[in-house]
Design a protein that fits this description.
437 residues; Histone, subunit A; Helix Hairpins; 16 helices; 8 strands
Length: 437
């Protein structure tokens, strides 16, 4: 247990073993804040919520308190509620463990990187109407045109097709009168700020990154889906669809980009759920298998995205105000205590006592020359690419090379045609001269 003097936050992130109790890392003296998907009521299996047995081992927060039909719950809402809980936990001489891994939300807790417009226009905890949601219903080109007029600097950093980010920047300007880019500049210029945002809010934080060999992780995630099915996933999906989604589908107003409906596992079974009982058993079986394979695929894709976020936003974060990231190898579950539990406890206890842990943090040097918001126009592909790394990857992609080859071939054909035309004109002029003579 940490003392008042040694207050600190500990963020736990990564792809831990789904079958291993996450609380084996925590111990019974600490308090945990759950990830973002777990805030919604229901869908316990598909969101992999902490079991009742696990919750009994230590106190948990932010689980199953939000109505599933609330669609405008944002990372700002999550951060605001979590910060109040963290403050309360510290006041009781405990320390919080934030369990990932929606690493975007963990980043929002650790660093000052968000703009809270709600505080500036109303003391109420929520707005009756979500302006961002209204904006996203408009035409993308119109949204980008508006943003270019009121905040050209922010518009230059965003892709014109990224309606969510464009709408968010417009929302910030409309609700505060201040360009979004101005807020971000102010955060970066604060003491301890950097290119990715403002200063670290909890200076005694550390990050425990649970990672595994990719092939091992892929197999484990496939097994996780099979375990969820055996635990009653289909029954949970049917019940949830009947209570919350059936009417939305009938009214053609379902949106799988908001609230709990955007969580992995629900939209993948959409076709199966809406046609069950209305098609042949053979077709239903095919759609079910399609949903299962889609769930496995998107789960593995999301795991890769999580690890990429850790590398790009934590390990390679520029500036000195970055908590140490300790890697814990979870490929071999038979060595869980040796490779994960004991090192994790030693790291946390050492930091709380003001000592240097025996383990060394993972080191990756940031690329100070990389611009994550640079704007590139690829004429052969007729695409806008944002970011130096994305641009480098695009120029090596098969699609780009294909369009580049087609363009060069077309240019070559046009040059050849132009050359023949010039030759023809020369011959004609020569014949005319000969006739004149």
């Amino acid at each position: 247990m940490c003392t008042e003097k040694r207050r600190g936050g500990c963020a736990l992130s990564g792809n831990a073993n789904p079958g291993q109790s996450r609380l084996q890392l925590l111990g019974c003296h600490h308090l945990a804040l759950a990830g973002v998907v777990e805030v919604y009521k229901g869908m316990d299996i598909i969101t992999n919520k902490v079991s009742a047995q696990e919750q009994a081992l230590c106190r948990h927060h932010m689980i199953s308190f939000l109505d599933p039909l609330v669609s405008n719950y944002t990372v700002v809402d999550f951060r605001n509620k979590a910060e109040l809980l963290i403050k309360d936990i510290f006041s009781r001489n405990k320390f919080p463990i934030v369990v990932g891994g929606t690493n975007y939300y963990i980043e929002a807790l650790l660093w000052k990187v968000l703009v809270d417009t709600k505080e500036k226009i109303s003391p109420a905890p929520r707005l009756a109407v979500d302006r961002k949601e209204e904006l996203e219903k408009l035409d993308g080109q119109e949204l980008y045109r508006r943003l270019s007029q009121v905040d050209p600097e922010m518009a230059a950093k965003l892709h014109p097709h990224d309606k969510r980010k464009v709408s968010r920047s417009l929302q910030v300007f409309e609700e505060t009168g201040v360009p979004h880019s101005t807020f971000l500049k102010q955060q970066q210029q604060e003491e301890g700020g950097g290119p990715l945002g403002g200063p670290l809010k909890y200076p005694n934080s550390c990050i425990l990154w649970l990672f595994a060999d990719q092939a091992v992780l892929d197999k484990r995630l496939d097994q996780r889906v099979d375990t969820m099915l055996a635990a009653g996933l289909l029954e949970e999906l049917r019940d949830f669809h009947r209570r919350y989604n059936q009417q939305k589908v009938a009214e053609n107003c379902q949106d799988y980009q908001r609230g709990i409906f955007q969580s992995i596992g629900f939209k993948e079974f959409h076709e199966y759920l809406v046609t069950e009982g209305k098609c042949s058993p053979e077709t239903s079986s095919i759609l079910l298998e399609k949903g299962i394979q889609a769930l496995k695929q998107v789960t593995k894709k999301y795991a890769r995205k999580q690890n990429k976020w850790v590398r790009n936003r934590f390990l390679q974060r520029p500036g000195y105000n970055v908590p140490p990231v300790y890697g814990l190898e979870v490929s071999d579950l038979s060595r869980w205590e040796e490779n994960v539990l004991k090192p994790a406890l030693e790291i946390v206890e050492s930091l709380l006592q003001g000592k240097k842990p025996l383990a060394d943090p993972v080191k990756m040097e940031p690329d100070i020359n990389e611009n994550k918001r640079s704007h590139h126009m690829c004429e052969p592909c007729n695409r806008i690419i944002i970011g130096d790394r994305e641009w480098a990857a695009h120029t090596k992609s098969k699609s780009h090379l294909h369009h580049l080859k087609k363009r060069r071939k077309l240019e070559s054909e046009l040059c050849a045609a132009g050359s023949q035309e010039t030759d023809g004109d020369s011959d004609g002029a020569k014949d005319a001269r000969e006739d004149k003579c």
